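Appendix B. Raw example, untouched.
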Amino acid sequence: MPLRVVVAGASGVVGRTLLPLLRARGHHVTALVRRCPDRSCAEQADEVVTADVLDLAALREALTAAAPDVVVDQIAGFGPAGPHDAEAARRAADRRAATAGNLVVAAVAAGARRVVAQSTAAAYRPHGHEVLDEDAPLWTDAPGCWGDLVRSIASVEEAVLTCPGIEGVALRYGALYGPATEFAPGGTVHEQVRGSALPVVGDGFGLTSFTHLDDAAGAVLEVLDDIDPGAYNVVDNEPAECAEWLPAYARMIGCPAPVSLTVEQAEAQLDWLTVHRLTEQRGATNFRLRETVGWRPAWPSWREGFAELLGHWPG
């Protein structure tokens, strides 16, 4: 059944991928952006509205005019942050929590029945060598700026999942890759690997669950209707140890293999969050989403997804 869908953060990497898919399904799409959109965003939506999501009054007015059935929150705001960005990370965390809260309030006022929000599977508290499901706790007491960001993620999910009168869905993406992401040519990870600045640390047991932009957007399509409210991991089928994906990625971009550091060396040379991700971060399972709606990732393994992104995939 066609729905009226507002996409907040429509000009972001997931939003840009999502808009044409929604239109192809017959949904009426309103792109909500903070500034005047680029041409591609305007062309892929039925209408475009501008509003600052931190301005609740303006946001309520914009959503009421759009009259959505579903509000999709694809506003990013929790990315990697090093030790020198602690204050910026705290500000980003506060903004992200505030934007989610405002979107929920405005969605209720506009008569929407469902809010779908972007979250992250990187926020789980590390536990042994297990791959984690949605019942695992978020690491809200993590050290430093990462703790600030995880607490903001928890606030986003609380706002979406506990508001009376609204059906809330939180999509916990893995490490997003695809065009214009940090793994694409010129992106942060791409440049770090090119510069031998991202090593294999210790045994390389840190797990990363990856999510192609196509699969992030495809999951949104599946949860617009007829799925129980709650949190769902949106990740591929193959959580990867850094000792596996980092050398493979380096080969694909034509770089030497990453250097190897002991944990002690890494702690002396790298920021805490990078060491955490390379040594103790846990991956996530997509079992709940697969079994609930039959969702399957178009890119079930990061291997094929990276190959396509970096020009090594046939066709």
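End of appendix B.
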